[in-house]
Amino acid sequence: MKNIPEFNLKYGKNDTPILRATEIDNHSSFILQEYSKSHPEYSFLNPQATPIENIIELYCGISMDFQSFADEYVLGMTSFSKGYINIVRDGQIVPYKVDKGMIIISSELEADEKQEGRLNYTLAHELGHNVYHRRKFEEPDYSTQPLLFDEDPKESFAITCHRDNIENLDNTQGRDWIEWQADYFASCFLMPKEAVAEFWKDYKKEPEFVFGEEPAPYLAEMPYNELKAEFLRFVSTFRVSKKAAKIRLKKLNYITGGAAYDCL
Predict the structure, then answer these.
(1) CA–CA separation, 92 vs 252, rounded Å?
(2) 76 bridge partner residues
(3) Structural contact between residues 159 and 133, judged by C-beta atoms closer than 8 angstroms
(4) What is the rounded CA–CA span in Å between residue 53 and residue 120?
(5) Which residues pair with 18 in a beta bridge?
(6) Could you tell me the CA-to-CA distances from 167 to 163, 201, 242 in Å, in that order?
(7) How far apart are CA 219 and CA 213, in angstroms?
(8) Are 96 and 86 in contact (CB under 8 A)?
(9) At 92, which helix (H) or strand (E)?
(10) CB 124 within 8 A of CB 191
(11) What is the phi/psi pair of residue 17, to 5°?
(12) Longest dimension (CA), the chain
């Protein structure tokens, strides 16, 4: 594993990092800026898709694979020790050996082109775990023991990410903050705030400040049909899902909730 910065993080109980959204935003931009120094074809300042697979495998040196998980609710996982997980092969559940630091993604996402956005988000989510949660989960190797999908206590040395944990930033009530951090990192990493601002620069209007009122979103005065067309271009440019794009733009105050938000 390489090129993953050691950020100066504060930790709470159980070695869970304490992170503000602005910190995660800045961390993701820093990594992308460092990546661009050796890959001038990419700039986090320009609207474009983040080359997430290249960053994971070639830049960060993290092994990655696609498998059919025995647990159908799992979309991705990051291992923090060697061991075995259960996968489905030829209709049978069999053990599959994983290495320390490995990212495994459900083959369901790889096989369906319509899920490109969700695939990219899941990959970035797992990278977020590598950036922030190694201290919490890394332990000595248990290469002869299963990691997941059984009752072995060593299963805690890998993180499994379920369908309801991916692209779920809007729902923070009762959230596992480890998953929220990885989710927010994925959002920032695929849609850097700098590139988002560049995309909307011709449409963005700074709202007037009114004391005691929430600031209007930057695109509040944009006609809906025009907004919808540009929103779809945004989704295509960054290669993310509509859901992820809406949540990111809402978080950065480009759009607001309500009926128009739901119809995008």
Answers:
(1) 45
(2) 105, 161
(3) yes
(4) 8
(5) 10
(6) 9, 26, 10
(7) 17
(8) yes
(9) strand 92-98
(10) no
(11) -65, 145
(12) 64
Q: What is the pTM of this model?
A: 0.89
Report helix, strand or coil for 107: helix
For 210, other C-beta atoms within 10 Å of its C-beta total 9
Among the residue ranges 46-50, 107-111, 213-217, the one predicted with the least confidence is 213-217
pLDDT, residue 157, reads: 57
Q: Which residue has the tokens 């509040």?
A: 220
Q: Any idea which residue has 């661009």 for tokens?
A: 36
Structure tokens at 72: 């159908």
In this structure, are strands 103-106 and 64-67 parallel, antiparallel, or unpaired? parallel
What confidence tier does 229 reach under pLDDT thresholds 50, 70, 90? very high
Residue 253 dihedral angles phi and psi, to the nearest 5°:
65, 35
Count of CB atoms situated within 10 Å of the CB of 91:
5
DSSP 156: G
* Tokens encoding 68: 């059919």
The pair of structure tokens assigned to 110 is 């790889």
Task: Take residue 177 and report the two structure tokens written for it.
Answer: 């903050």
Rounded Cα–Cα distance for residues 35 and 2 (Å): 12
